Amino acid sequence: MISAVIVLFLLVVGLSGVGVYLYQTTEAWQDRSAALSDRVQDLADAVATLDDELEVTISALERTETQLDTARDRITALADEKAQLGDEHAVQQRLVEYQQHISEIAADVLFALDECITGQNRVMDYLEDPDRYDEDDLERVQGQVDDYCADATRASEELVEELS
Question: 3-state SS of 25-57?
């Protein structure tokens, strides 16, 4: 009878230990799940922000291309008017120089926008699998992307100012 009580006591102690272990394990998993859920939400917010920025950049690129087409049409019209008023050769030479100048600025705009879009795509690639990358690297790349996009904005403003 005493041995049965001892066995029963040891069984109760053993089951209590297993219960405590399972409780602690469950708590740890719940904490990990909450942390991962927060990280996923942060990454989803970052992706949404980058998507918005990408849309804005694409829209800016489309506006710049439209402005470039308009500028080329305007340049051609101005060249025609000036050719009628004076020395056609001199006017054509100035037109070519102006078109080259505008083309250089437009190329700068397109290059900067391309760098901006490429950088944003890289950031989105980082965000698709963030565990593969260091968060400091992501911040460094985001800083570079911000610089590229700022360069694109400045180049676009220069083009608009030149065309005005």
Answer: HHHHHHHHHHHHHHHHHHHHHHHHHHHHHHHHH
Domain ranges of the chain: 38-163
Output DSSP code: residue 144.
H
Give the whole-angstrom CA distance, residue 125 versus residue 146.
Answer: 16
Contacts (Cβ under 8 Å, ≥6 apart) of 164: none
Question: pLDDT digit string (tens) for 83-135?
Answer: 676 666 776 788 888 888 888 888 888 888 888 888 888 878 777 877 777 87
For the CA atoms of 153, 154, 155, 156, the dihedral, rounded to the nearest 10 degrees, stands at: 50
Q: What is the pTM of this model?
A: 0.44
Over residues 48-58, mean pLDDT: 86
